[in-house]
């Protein structure tokens, strides 16, 4: 079976949407002689060797790596859109699925430092965000998670908003990098994804508006302490009744 021939056929599922074609990468390994059967496990070592040999310095592989890193980041609204005379404005933040870890040199720290060393930058609507990507201003003081505050201005709720991460600082390249997760998106799409346009609240019964994490974290800690004291009191009372 010729996988590349099938991939090149028009109207395939993996290329149905024109704006998602850059999310797909294909690496073909050229083999000498007869192609081994799919169940021929004895050729696995040879196939692995040839694949690494042919693609270790592939530009496509570099683009794939950049795409995977870029999709570690995503965007969420932090306020509802406000309609002005000739545009719509709203606020949001770029977040990262990689957490801070248990120490100051965790995975998030290493990821951001690596990107900063390469001069990587976020682009919002084709404009770079200022400041180094590993700046302490981009780390939430309470949760230690990564977040970058962004203000958006769009023509309407269905205008596409591209946010990308350009890894490296190659001035000769005009590319603005790879899209972050789900980019480009629209305000309407974000409102629906975050459950803000449901008249009776969210399906998971969560809040329909974001809360300030700086106030939310101490409140959760306070509630946790109160709950622990109550449980301790109940256990103590139960022990007394058993002894009596």
Structure, described:
The structure is a single chain. The chain is an alpha+beta fold and 244 residues long. It has a domain at 69-193. The chain has helices at residues 3-7, 44-55, 59-70, 107-117, 187-193, 213-243; strands at 73-77, 82-83, 88-96, 121-124, 127-128, 147-154, 163-166, 178-179. It is extended and about 65 Å long. The protein starts with a helix and ends with a helix. The model has no long low-confidence stretch (mean pLDDT 79).
Secondary-structure map:
Layout (H helix, E strand, L loop, with lengths): L2 H5 L36 H12 L3 H12 L2 E5 L4 E2 L4 E9 L10 H11 L3 E4 L2 E2 L18 E8 L8 E4 L11 E2 L7 H7 L19 H31 L1
Antiparallel strand pairs: 1-3, 2-3, 3-6, 4-5, 4-7, 7-8
Q: Key features?
A:
single chain; 8 strands; 244 residues; 32% helix; alpha+beta; 4-stranded antiparallel β-sheet
Spans of at least 5 consecutive residues with low confidence: none
Helix content: 25-40%
Number of helices: 6
Approximate strand percentage: 5-15%
The ordered H/E elements are HHHEEEHEEEEEHH
- Counting DSSP E segments of at least 2 residues, the number of strands comes to 8
Round the Cα radius of gyration to an integer and report it.
25 Å
The rough form would be described as: extended
Q: Termini distance? A: 79 Å
Report the mean per-residue pLDDT as an integer.
79
Class by SSE composition: alpha+beta
| Major sheet description | 4 strands, antiparallel
């Amino acid at each position: 079976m010729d996988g590349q021939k099938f991939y090149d056929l028009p109207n395939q599922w993996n290329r149905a949407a024109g704006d998602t074609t850059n999310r797909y990468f294909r690496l073909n390994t050229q083999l000498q002689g007869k192609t081994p059967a799919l169940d021929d496990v004895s050729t696995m070592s040879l196939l692995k060797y040839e694949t690494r040999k042919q693609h270790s310095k592939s530009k496509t592989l570099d683009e794939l790596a950049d795409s995977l890193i870029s999709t570690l980041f995503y965007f969420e609204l932090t306020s509802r859109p406000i309609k002005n005379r000739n545009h719509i404005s709203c606020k949001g933040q770029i977040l990262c699925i990689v957490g801070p870890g248990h120490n100051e040199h965790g995975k998030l720290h290493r990821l951001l430092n690596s990107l900063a060393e390469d001069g990587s930058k976020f682009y919002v609507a084709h404009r770079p965000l200022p400041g180094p990507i590993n700046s302490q201003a981009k780390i939430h003081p309470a949760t230690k998670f990564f977040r970058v505050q962004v203000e958006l201005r769009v023509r309407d709720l269905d205008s596409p908003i591209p946010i990308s991460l350009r890894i490296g600082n190659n001035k000769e390249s005009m590319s603005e990098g790879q899209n972050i997760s789900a980019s480009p998106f629209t305000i309407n799409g974000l409102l629906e994804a975050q459950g803000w346009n449901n008249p009776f609240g969210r399906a998971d019964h969560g809040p329909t508006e974001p809360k300030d994490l700086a106030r939310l974290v101490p409140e959760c800690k306070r509630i946790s302490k109160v709950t622990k004291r109550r449980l301790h009191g109940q256990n103590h009372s139960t022990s007394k009744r058993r002894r009596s």
